[in-house]
Amino acid sequence: MVAVMDRPEMPPTSLAVPGDVLLEVANVSLAFGGVKAISNISFDIRQGEIRAIIGPNGAGKTSMLNVINGFYHPQEGTITFEGKVRRRMRPHEAARSGVARTFQNVALFRGMTTLDNIMSGRTLMMRRNFFWQALRFGPALNEEIAHRKRVEEIIDFLEIQHIRKTPVGKLPYGLQKRVELGRALAMEPRLLLLDEPMAGMNLEEKEDMSRFILDVNQQFGTTIALIEHDMGVVMDISDRVVVLDYGKKIGDGPPDEVRANQDVIDAYLGVSHG
Amino acid sequence: MNRAVATADGSYDTLPKLLVRNAREMAARPAMREKDLGIWQTWTWSQVLQEVRRFSIGLTELGLGAGDRVAVVGQNRPRLYWTFAAVQAFGGVPIPVYADSVAEEMAFVLDHAEVKAAVCEDQEQVDKVVAIAAEVPTIELVVYDDPRGLRDYDHTRLKSYEDVQALADTALAAAPRRAEDWERGIATHKGADLAVMLYTSGTTGKPKGVMLSHDNLVISAQNANIFDKFGPDEEVIAYLPLAWVGDHMFSYAQSYVAGYCVCCPESPETVNDDRREIAPTYFFAPPRVYETLLTAIMVRMEDASAAKRWMFHALMRHARKVGERILDGDQVPLGDRLLYRLGELLVYGPLKNRMGFTRIRVGYTAGEAIGPEIFRFYRSLGMNLKQLYGQTEASVYITMQPDGAIDAETVGTPPPGVEVEIAESGEVMFRSPGVFLGYYKNDEATRETKTEDGWVHTGDAGIFTADGQLKIIDRAKDVGRLVDGGLFAPKYIENKLKFFPNVKEAVAFGHERDYVAVFLNIDLIAVGSWAERNNVSYASYQELAGLPRIYEMMAEHVAQVNRDLANEPMMASAQIRRFLVLHKELDADDGELTRTQKVRRRYIAERYQPLIEALYDGSTEKFVATEVTFEDGRKGVIEATVKIIDAETFSPAGADPLSQAAE
User: Are A36 and A48 in contact (CB under 8 A)?
Assistant: First the structure.
């Protein structure tokens, strides 16, 4: 019937109003022994935006992402997510709270198929326990069908139908990155963290990935924070940009403003730091 | 003309009428499938009618009506196929456009056809059409199927497919009799009405809009269905471009006439998997699809264990021996039949399953020459692969191979209703119920192509073989004559040479010359791997191409081609007397090939003038310096002394050699 045609639109994953502050980083400092990775950084991520964190090598970008993710615990400062000050938590707790991420180096289950990898992103949402799932019967089966449907929507969205049953280890790098994005999307995050989503990609793959990031943001309303090396890409797709250098924030604002910022230019062109 | 067959049921002479008939008589049978979210979704004929009716009425609500032209842009999606019927239902004319054409080409077509609306698959196509709309003032409406990425677009002239159908729902709720009016409107259309305009891709000059009537499509489809006994149980997979007449015929007209089911793959990349799942009963593909499938299998077989490889090769040998004869229903000894059965169980069956050919009843190939080895491979597996010859201007069918009379080198006989003749010039001409109405807004071209009494110039040169099958030898304009008057068809000779895996390209010369001579390019992959296996070392293409052993190898291939040519009365005088192996690969960067890898004959003739001279003045070697362009745009010069060899030729009867090879 007609119902067959009506592909249910994916529901927006957050009910918050666009423009509200989703996550606030206030005066955060992080040190490993004597090395200060991040010192006294503050910025916010607003509902529905694409927020980029950029900076030269060693600027503290990934450390920043790990702090937001709950993997590192800052010695000073607070992280406020959805109006609540985050206590010390483990990464899986952060995941349950609606934050998903991808990694700089692809971190997928190489021997498993694309489908299974993305399904693994649904793990936290499985309600039936292990024994039910092992039986694959009754409520557990219904639940799996519902999750599978959602996963298929993501596969369709990312245009990776042709590799659905291919072990991820056999895929080219650009596609692995896409699968990783798929797994993060499967968690239906309210905040999606992307660590160098375009590292090591050729121009065409970068353009594809940019398209997907914009579409995720537009279609699902997912707030995205991304770290990226490639200035061109960042400036094209982000709403606001934070620039870090040697663990300090040296710029924050819309792309055009940041591009004109003398400190940022110096950081990228390598002026000596006094 | 055999119209008795054609108008067996004259009341269903348009495609929308056939849809209404199918929805009534085959309501619950599957009409269309599409793989979506990993699952095959199915629509029955009655559901398709509903979809089409809602979309059609929705479009009329938006101001479209009889005579309006609607572009259809995208890949094989059910909704785009439904658009054809929806537009035809209110007397409009759908114009499918190649989805991969660049905006400029598309602009020409949309402007030339004065389209009023465009139905697009997705954002990519919408972007192109919106960019064009500035130049094509007639475009008033753009409809899209997949809403992804289009949310923030200006929706004043842009509508989603669902939006359009919703308009119809509102209209139908207000006035339920609109549905009957709609069907009554369909009943008023006639078979002679313009049904569709298909723009030919136009390798020369601007594309031309071929106008086909409902009669053209419906009668040709009926004849083809009768020819191959297609009924409502067929399943086909729709994966070729919508704008190509073949797809319009196989996936639309023939489906509506026979009531068979058309399946749309999930995405272009998944076609092979999708075909395997559907296992179509009728399959059409250009030769390269069959080639690619075969190569993939051969590569995988090389990786198989020794025992499996042995079994595969042994049973394939047997299949080559008896497979085609069993398929054609010839007498075959019982022992051979039993072994073939065993082969079916162990090798042929699994192979066909892998390729998605398990249920295939009829497979066709057309478009260009298929390698005889490839053709025979599929046939020996028991797949009924046949060739056909067709054109947009003919509503596809000019000749087809009937079951049991198959030859790798011919394209068959005219099906019922089609007449074919060879003109004085050697050009193939035909007359059939499928002959197009004319080129849109191009009477001059129409007059050049179609005679007063309905005969159409195909532009191809051909001959009829002794058993009445048509054989296409070349483009008519490329066919020349030797000094002694013998027929010289360069592409025919070149294709024969190119079927050897070791030969990458060949360029034949002979028009107004004493004899035929050729340039050869070796295939660096095939010959390189031969060299590796035989401990022949080489540093470059140039060195490899000049080795005496390579020349010996090429001489054997040329002799084989000559032996074949000697067996054909029309071609015997076109045997290759002398040849050389070029010192560089022909390359599109140097302008020697087109971007689609076709030989640019005239340019090569100019560029290598000294070598051509040498082919005809009897010299055994020639020094040349050739300018080349590297990929980064720099230019350089390749110098070489190219050897020229006499080839072995055969007397027409195939008996004593006329002259022996010089080496």
Answer: no
A157 CB neighbours in chain B (<8 A) are: 148
Q: How far is CA A56 from the centre of its chain?
A: 20
List pLDDT tens digits, range B244-291.
999 999 999 999 999 999 999 999 889 999 999 999 999 999 888 898
- Selected residue of A5, A9, A148 to mutate for chain B interface (largest B Cβ count, 10 A): A5
Q: What is the pLDDT tens value at each position of chain A, 274 positions in all?
A: 333 333 344 444 444 556 788 899 999 999 888 888 888 999 999 999 999 998 888 888 888 988 888 888 888 888 888 888 887 777 777 778 888 888 877 788 999 999 999 999 888 777 666 676 777 777 778 888 889 999 999 999 999 999 999 999 999 888 999 999 999 999 999 999 999 888 888 888 888 899 899 989 988 889 999 998 777 888 889 999 999 888 888 889 998 888 888 888 887 766 655 4
Q: What digits encode the pLDDT tens for the residues B12-66?
A: 999 999 999 999 999 999 999 999 998 999 999 999 999 999 999 999 999 999 9
For chain A positions 56-75, those within 8 Å of chain B (CB to CB) are: none
- The angle that helices B178-188 and B78-89 make with each other, rounded to 10 degrees, is 80
The DSSP result for B186-215, as a single string, is: HHH--TTSEEEEEE---SSSS--EEEEEHH
- Amino acid at position B23, single letter: A
ipTM of the complex: 0.71
Comparing alpha-carbon positions, the chain B residue that sits nearest to A6 is: B162
Q: Alpha helices, DSSP H only, in B344-442?
A: 349-355, 372-380
Q: Which of A6, A156, A211 to mutate to test the interface with B (most CBs of B within 10 A)?
A: A156
**Any CB–CB contact under 8 A between A246 and chain B?**
no
Q: Does A149 touch chain B (CB under 8 A)?
A: yes
Candidates A162, A210, A218, partner chain B, best to mutate (most B CBs within 10 A): A162
Asked if B55 and B83 count as a contact pair (C-beta separation under 8 A), the reply is yes
The phi, psi pair for B397, rounded to 5°, reads: -80, 120
DSSP-based three-state secondary structure for B421? strand
Which chain B residues contact residue A239 at CB under 8 A?
A: none
- Which CA distances in Å does A16 have to B63, B381, B471, B624? 41, 62, 70, 75
Report the DSSP pairing between strands B635-646 and B576-581: antiparallel
Look at B41 and A4 and tell me if their CB atoms are within 8 Å. Answer: yes
Measure in Å the smallest separation between the Cα of B39 and chain A Cα atoms.
9
Residue carrying the six token digits 């109003």 = A17
Q: CA-based Rg of chain B, rounded to a whole angstrom?
A: 27
In chain A, beta strands by DSSP E? 21-32, 35-46, 50-54, 76-81, 84-85, 99-102, 191-195, 223-227, 240-245, 248-253
- A1: chain B residues, CB-CB within 8 Å: 47
What are phi and psi for residue B197, nearest 5 degrees? -120, 125
Q: Tokens 């992804």, residue?
A: B148
Which of B282, B209, B224, B603 minimizes the C-alpha distance to B445? B209
Find chain A residues with C-beta within 8 A of B51's C-beta. 5
Tell me if B648 sits within 8 A of B575, measured CB to CB. Answer: no
Torsion sign across C-alpha atoms B143, B144, B147, B149: negative
Q: What pTM, to 2 d.p., does this model score?
A: 0.81
| Closest CA in chain B for residue A212 | B149
Indicate yes or no: CB of B269 within 8 angstroms of CB of A161.
yes
| Rounded to 5°, angle at Cα B392 from B390 and B398 | 25
With beta carbons less than 8 A apart as the criterion, state whether B583 and B626 touch.
Answer: yes
Q: Answer positive or negative: Cα dihedral of A147, A149, A154, A160.
A: positive
Question: For residue B349, what are the CA distances in angstroms to B235, B360, B382?
Answer: 19, 12, 9
DSSP structure class, residue B412: B
